[in-house]
## 1
Amino acid sequence: MHFAMPPRKTSRPPPYAGRNQSKMAIPPALKNLVRTRARLILGGIVGLFTLLWLLGGTGSSGSSMSASKVGGWKAADIPKVAVGSGPPVVIVTVMNPKADPGWTAKIKSNREDYAKRHGYQTFFPQNDQYPLRNAPPSWSRVPAIRHAMTLHPGSTFFWYLDSTALIMTPAVPIHTHLLSPAKLESFMITNAPVVPPDSVIKTFSNLKGDRIDFVVTQDKDGLAPSSFVIRNGEWAKFFLDSWFDPIYRSYNFQKAESHALEHIVQWHGTILAKLAMVPQNLLNAYASGPASEKDGAFKEGDLVANFPGCDKDERNCAKEQEAYWAILEQAKN
Amino acid sequence: MSRSPSPQPGGWSSPGLNTPYDNGGQTSPFIPNGSSPHNVTWASAQARSAEVKGYPGFTPRSQGFFGKHFRRISTSLPFNHGEKEKLGRGRSQGSKIMQILSRIGRNMWRLRKWLGLIVIGIIGFVIWNVALRRMYNRASWLGGGSKYVVILAANQGGGVMEWKGPREWAIERDSVKNKRKYTKHWGYELEIVDMSTKKRYAHEWRESWEKVDTIRNAMRKYPHAEWFWWLDTNTFIMEPTYSLQKHIFKRLQDVTYRDINIYNPLNITHPLTDEYLDPETRSAVGDGKVDSVNMLIPQDCGGFNLGSFMVRRSVWTDRLLDIWWDPVGYEQKHMEWEHKEQDAFEYMYQNQPWIRPHVAFIQQRQIMSFPPGACGEKGDDPNIHYQERERDFLVNMAGCEWGRDCWAEMYNYRQLSNRLNRSYWEKFKDAISDFFKKKTKKSEKKKEKKN
């Protein structure tokens, strides 16, 4: 027979199959929660893991070390003195303790008078008080300036002046007449060979006056570190320490520290970039000796009269300087 | 009450074919309430009246692209469940697999919002991982990665002095790959330098003293970078997940020492005591401020080690790089200074006081662990040698070219690094394979015992 309709369902439904009883009993409350908030819980878990992974990817913890602990340093208690808060210029002259004490006293008073007039400071160390390691005593000027910087951290300029030189025009304050940026810029000799007559290394031509940390002159033979000015600062420490390197001191430079200076100035750009060469008569005019032919010889009105080498060999500084002392005495009265 | 068209065991009731026999099993010819001969249902009548009234009592749902085309799309899917006019007449049909598939499909459609979120999340993560993370790590105002430059010396001593064999090539390739991956992940700059011996100077001087020139060139090339990290070829970054910022620079005061007396293999007198020096130079730790550190350098058992060190861009560094090589020093000492820059720097540290306040020594294992064979055969000094358990950052196979096998060391450390930095998935896989390996081994052993 053909039926249009499907047969009826059996009136005896099969019994429900028993559920596989899981061993872990989940509390019904939790089960309900899982059932009703399934999406939320799932999303939360996924989100949490994503977050953990992302954070774990960008950050990482430093390893703890079985190595012996180092570190733990803290800011040291070092008084900071602002450069410029002290006297503007400190005059440094290294004295030879074996020299004639009368002359030494006169040299000291020459600088002290000048310093007093303009509110400067003076510093007169002995040439045997620094550890030179058998180097010639003329090297002591380098640690002497460093020493002066330690003693007067607030000063801006440190003027090293050899004991053979005299300050002839004490009325002229050096820090405004030579060392102000504008003055320096107008005076400095640019694009000139550092060592005459034909060194390939020339002073930079695009220097700014306020970037200058080292003012020096050149005599006939080369740089003349018998009178120069250094500006206080980190560069000065670098410059003085590398100039004072034991290698240079033990190296057989013919003229000790002045050849070493010429060497580092020519080989190291960071030093040359801070150097201003000024006409010799502005800072270091020679009354005798190998003055620069153009403007090196002393004439009236120059700040300094230098007698280079008058303390060496058989020479006598006091005698050579007699006429100049007389001029100074005259000016005083 | 109307009979809404609903699937019945017999299928959809279709107009016209509506027979009394249609109401499954009901034998009487009685037509149930309200069902007109034309089979007008309540819903259809309502819809028609809504049309007449002309206001949208009924808005079609199918508006957007998916609404319009969903049916077409879904019918073309394997788990189609919208099409009911087929032979199976609403009964689930096909194999069990099709049933499961269709259930999955239904559920997916039901959870489409959540699925969409997850998909967006995945896409976002991929974009983050591939492109944005690097940008984030690089940007100077976020991760700050562009402030660090890794300088990798390649081809050391090669060039005119030596032919490179396949092993040397392999070492270099591995080393470069390792650093490239690391710098890419963290957004650092990588500068690979050809250190082959070049006769760049007319005289013989300054041969293989290019470290200084190289760092200066890198400083010029990356004018916004702050720290420059020098790395020798024979180094391997074991933990690429450590960033320099977090691993070193954020805890500079904990991982470095400025007073060399803490570890002083060279017996350098420190601090300086000369009275002509200023208090900062005489202080054991300089001024003790973090920002006065311009150079980070590790010490091994033989003194300073320049295989992995860092300098910061500063005027101090400029001066150091300028003064580092000096012809007078070179002339006098080049026979004695076997390690060139390294010995020269040791010398300068001792003799030029301005250097000390700006150098910090970093605990060796933070930046450069040694393998056994360097500074002790056993490799058990916790201050010097690589410790796997503590996940040291970098291995420097220093001196491996003198009697050790550079390539073997590089290979082993690379494998170790890969193993230590597996992803969770890889760890899981490896655990399973290890488990089975153990089982087979055990059974083999049992067999052996039986035999």
## 2
Amino acid sequence: MLQVRRLVKKYGDLVAVAGVSFQVEAGRIYGLLGPNGAGKSTTIGCVSGLMPPTSGSVAILGHDVVSQGTSAKKELGIVPQEIALYEDLSARENLGYWAAAYGLRGSKLRERVGEVLGLVGLLDRGDEPIGRFSGGMKRRLNFACGIVHRPKLLLLDEPTVGVDPQSRFRLLELVQEQARQGVGVLYTTHYMEEAERVCHELGIIDRGKIIAAGTLDELRAMLGERDLLRLSGRFQAETAAEAIRGLEDTELVQCSDELLTIALKDGSQRLPLIFASLDAVGAKIRETTLKRPSLESLFIKLTGEELRE
Amino acid sequence: MSIRFVLVTAQKDLRRLGRDLRALAIWMGIPLLIGTLFSLAFGNGAGVRPKPHLLIVDQDQSFVSQALVGFLGSGGPEGFALVDKVSFEEGNRRIAEGDGSALLILPKGLGLAVLEGSPATLHLTTNPAQRILPAMIQESLEILCEMVFYLRRLAGDTLSKVAGWMSGEGGMADDAAVAALAVEVKRFTEGLKPYLDPPMMSVQTEVETVENPLAKGAGYLMAPGILFMSLLFMAQGLAADLWTEREEGTLWRFLTTPRRVGNLVLGKTLAGFVLMAGVSVVALLLGAAAFEIEVARLPLAALWASFSGAVLLLLFQALFLFASSRKGASLLGTAVVFPLLMLGGSFFPFEAMPDWMVAAGRWTPNGLAVSELKAILDGRWEMMGLGSSFLILSGVATVAVMVGSWRMRRGFLST
């Protein structure tokens, strides 16, 4: 459904996307997970045809986005990160306009608009100017505008940013419902728990590159079911590293004079041993954080950094 | 390009504009407000044509001087000039106070000098506060002097005889002499008759159907420019909606649809056209009532004004897309609008502008449009002229659509 091959996007000397490849199948949700500035929105921009790639290719249902843009865009629905609605029109008028932009008209348009309003729970508020809507209602309408024309591929660019928990829950349900109906979904987010909950496959992107990809189980396996232990304090980096490397089933992820990140099995059981080893080389520990295996710990393992907002 | 979707876009924008009542009121109000102010300042322009006001001191009191006064004041209220016979003191006082266009002193002995053919001097004092009306009086007096010169060439002996009787030097005229003079005058006039009746030189008069716009006054000359002032402000305001669409994210969303960006540009322009047509119709109807413009000319005038306004909107849209922010676009618009208003005949009518400025102003988009609108309202438009202007503005519009569409696809969103 969506094929992205060796996608590169440069702005002068800055490389925003550096050779990203992935594909999204019908009825599957592909999550692009990464911190802000990792290249997710640029990738979405290239996939939606807004930004011409510097090199590489993007094809939607076999239509190249650059050379067959009109055909490719017909199959595409987009839910942008920012709310993109006409504030002085009603929900029904907004949906009607975007449906017409994809060629719907007459009774089919009216029926579909009503259907989508019901789907996002706004049927009774459809004729009100959306200036009166809450943020969560606008988010739901924003989503509705992306699916009103029944796209085969749906791009969601951080659709739950700034959304209250109730609306977020509803939005995630709607995304899953679209996938159940056979729509291929590309979902970008920097919320790990969201990605874990809705995505069938994931690509972890950082600094313009996909650094890990696969199903959730495959990614967890990469971490080897190991906990992630972060210690902050004052260390002699080299001696502390030596002390940790001497321990069994322990992997040093990151080491500096102020921070140590260690991947290890049964972390809580082995904390006393770790503390004793570091104490022996004169390390002063101020704070300890132990994380269970998750996408976030995988991200830290892969990049040596926490997922930044 | 989908005409249906252009119409859908125009409908959407008209809905949005219709809900912004404040902007609508301002756009409708600008021409009405400015038009009212100009009417108060200059009158509605359809008033009485100004006439020279001539003060005459007749020191001669001869039949020649009285004939001269009668000639200058002939025709009553519809005549060439308003004539007041005054004393020497009153005449000097009133002209010093600026009451009158000129003071003419007919000196003692004028009548005799005319009959004898001796030199005589007329004293004309003009009002320096007026320029055209005193000049009209001066021209008229010069023509009168020429007439007297030719009269003396043709009937000098007869006039000299009459002068001799009047001065007493030729003795008293007896009945026979008077009868002989009457016969002489009769022969003289009969001699002139072949030349005067019918005249040797026939003058064919063609009454032009075109009205003289100057006769309708300053308000009429200003009105088309004022309408375009309003249309320029509207174009500037409507063009800023592209920045609103960018800020609301709807432009971003539009660019991800399969529709060509030209659909959006033309839809917005069509909405602007409809709005401008509304403003133009109201303004032109009011103008027609104030300046007695033929109602039959209004449809073409409204169509032309709306079309030209839409071209201005396209120009502003293209211009605003190159600004780096909404504020920058606003400043850019202001920097362009005021020179266009100045040159394009909105602040001052072309008729009151220096030639070089008119030459430059008529080539601005709004100046070209104002010129043609005036021609339509005056009934002197020609298919060739209007067609050429239409093609020029259409060319400008096409370039603006192309530049605007290119800019929207390339760089505007990432500015």
## 3
Amino acid sequence: MEVKEKKAKVAKQGVLKRIAGPVVTAVNLDAHMYDVVKVGKEALMGEVIKIQGDNIIIQVYEDTSGIRPGEPVENTGLSLAVELGPGLLTSIYDGIQRPLAVLVDKMGNFIERGVSAPGLSHTKKWSFKPLVKSGDNVEPGTILGEVQETNIVHRVMLPPNVKAGIVKTIKSGDFTVDETICILNDGREYPMIQRWPVRVPRPVKEKMNPTIPLITGQRILDGLFPIAKGGTAAIPGPFGSGKTVTQQQLAKWSDAEIVVYIGCGERGNEMTEVLTEFPHLEDPKSGKPLMERTVLIANTSNMPVAAREASVYTGITIAEYFRDMGYDVSLMADSTSRWAEAMREISSRLEEMPGEEGYPAYLAARLSEFYERAGLVISLNGARGSVSVIGAVSPPGGDFSEPVTQNTLRIVKVFWALDAKLSQRRHFPAINWLNSYSLYLEALQDYYDKEVSPEWNKLRAWAMEVLQKEAELQEIVQLVGSDALPESEQVTIEVARMIREIFLQQNAYDAVDTFCDMSKQYDMMKAIKLFAEFAYAAQLAGVSPAQIIGVKSKNDLPQIKFIKDYKPELAKIEKQMDAEFNALRSAA
Amino acid sequence: MKEYRTISKIAGPLVFVEKTEPVAYQELVNIVLFDGTIKRGQVLDTSDDLVVVQVFETTTGIGRDSGVRFTGETIKMPVGREMLGRILSGGGKPIDGGPEIVPEKRLDITGAAINPYARGMPADFIQTGISTIDGTNTLVRGQKLPIFSAAGLPHNNVALQIARQAKVPGSTETFAVVFAAMGITKEEANYFMQDFERTGALERAVVFLNLADDPAVERIITPRLALTTAEYLAFELGMHVLVILTDMTNYCEALRQIGAAREEVPGRRGYPGYMYTDLASLYERAGMIKGLKGSVTQIPILTMPGDDITHPIPDLTGYITEGQIVVNRDLHRKGIYPPINVLPSLSRLMNLGIGKGHTREDHKKVSDQMYAGYAEGNDLRGLVAIVGKDALSERDRLLLEFADLFENRFVRQGYDEDRTIEDTLNLGWELLSTLPVEQLTRIDRDLINKYHPKFKTGAMKE
């Protein structure tokens, strides 16, 4: 970093030669790939993306209307970096880490251009408590001290790209992010802030295989297709199938300690919804407002396309930074398709040879580089942290065979397939249980055995089997009607319907049902299994399927979802089911 | 102002000009023909040696001898309070015989993005009087909710009915309407105009007409002029504005035409790769702003080529807008008006504008239950065609009947029938009461006891 800052001083001024949308060409500019430049008289921020002889090609993060050839271009000599330090949490940024609240103050309700705003407040004082003392050896990534940022403790670390050293002075008290808090024996001084180039993954000591599930409180996810802490998942689905609601549910309820939510090329009103809602929602674990653990990045669809391309990197770099402190971070990117389209748009302006469907040939590489930044790691300071990445994909026409979906599926371990058919019948979350999968099941088995119940894995397998069987039976039902099925299979259809309607359907807008912990999930599934056992036994004893389907007490089961203290009610229903089936069996 | 006579190439709507002084990107250009007529255009690409100009009118008459004047500014729109009640061309010139607009302000038509942090949350329920919208796909102030239609369907009537009946219950403010026609026929335009006049809506409307025989490229700016006007009325004058854009399909065709003329690498079906971003720059200009009084609500209309909802135009639109209202040919053939198919329809902001304090506490659950019942009943129709009605179980038979009832009672309504939200929800309960109560799994018991016609307080005593 020191090296780069020296270079910045010798950076030259160039001249604009051509402007065509967000891509401009400059000449007479001394530049390297991905250097950040200031374009035109208004000093719009841009980044060098191609060098061709004397022509330096730049993508500009702001609208370029009104810019003329001949205007100056200045190279800062730095790469696109984010500011990391206390003040990140509860912030809402655009794609290049400009705080949107500050932009409102500086330029009003609309996003004008040419305004720069630092990612962190440089005037606010934070109370810093040292954790090292003079004479201590410190290495890259060592935690120097703590700041109580919100209800989250912000661990201030030595940047990962510097040499080890010995602490000479460490301060304690209230400081801005720029003030020196630590001086090493060799004279190097460090403030709380560090800058990190967004396109470079932050280094770690070791990457490990994930073994703990990210509990999301969503039954179909935790119950059937879990994602591990440090894992990757994709949610592809056509429009209106509930990608955004699912992403927001994950941002709200997943048991990560930090949440980074990237609204990449999506709707402005959706971000407003998040902004208005999050401060009022409580984290089910800590009871504190959810906003206190959240960093939002909002580069809506009508904000500059180049900044949209950068937004994903900005988000993951912030996520990695908190991971290095030893936190479990989950990152939601909604939607990676818009990010891919931003790449396509820039690429076509560069007149690059297109790959599939006009996307650049490096699409697959970019996607895999991004998802590979997820993981459960031992950070440089020895803390265990994780970044889980959940990317929404918006395939054109809902067709999963398109390049972004396909290239994503090759990398991610969990696939939550959204289905327009399900959302049309208001089956939410509209995740198709037959097409979805999770490759973490085996790795997580031990956790479920220990933390939920030794029965859980079997119960899950049973539910999947019933659903699979139902799919086969439905094909016959479509042809001949359900009365033509053998009696035991009519029971199976009923049981599957219960799994779908009681267990899988979940109301994100109901105060209780929006979050369902593992033990309740287990109890609900067990109750359905209990019904199934009663039902098959009764059927063998000669009770007709119509009578079994007519059992009254099971109709109360769905109500369990909406009751917070559900156990007494559930016990009552189970008892009634037992009684009703007993009566049926003795009558038969 | 300097006039250049250095046109080197003319291709479709594009004019290439050589050796100019530095020209700004997106600058407004006037091209002077030999007979003195002036055609307007905009800079698409600028460099030291070549400037590409997109001409908004036909390029007929432009030759290498034509003069090119660069105006030094981007396209600005004169706006003012007086615009209400006026009819303008797709290029923003008055065509109603009235005087020129006296501008109170001149605004850039590109429009800056609303800072997401400054946005107000849309939560005011708009009652359109149409059950399939109010009850199951609720519109709220500041939303963008397109109508997905196809050739030969009565989408215009639906749009007009919304424009006519839209109100926020409990508020006396009416909506100002900004209507932008892009490439529609004179006949269609007349239909809109007559209805506006019949109902007196024209007084509080601004109309932009780019008709089928007007230059296609002009369609690129028509919606931008309309939205600039809408933003002015909403955010500077504090009005609630309803913007109707029709037909977005023609707009996208114009976009493709320019892309092709520029020899760009095409995306899906020949539409430009940046069409998502371009459409977003229009659709995202809906919303509310914290601390300001007005709002911009958008109802874009598009016709799906070949009734195909996966076609790039409806597809990209659906990814940007907050839901869609789908007009359906089968329902139309059955003689049902408005032929809105609720199954693929959706309003993403519905949950913000309904429920206690907005409409009624049972709204969400009644809507979900009707959806579920109709979806299942609709599926059963396929089965009945194979096995006959007699092979159905009692449960399925009731669902099948529910689907028919739903279409005939809930969906069907008159062109001038203005149902209140209470009417709509009560109608919903009435239809749901034909199903066994234990099948209403999506509604909790408290609500059933309160609203179900057979159970609500008083029903027992009768």
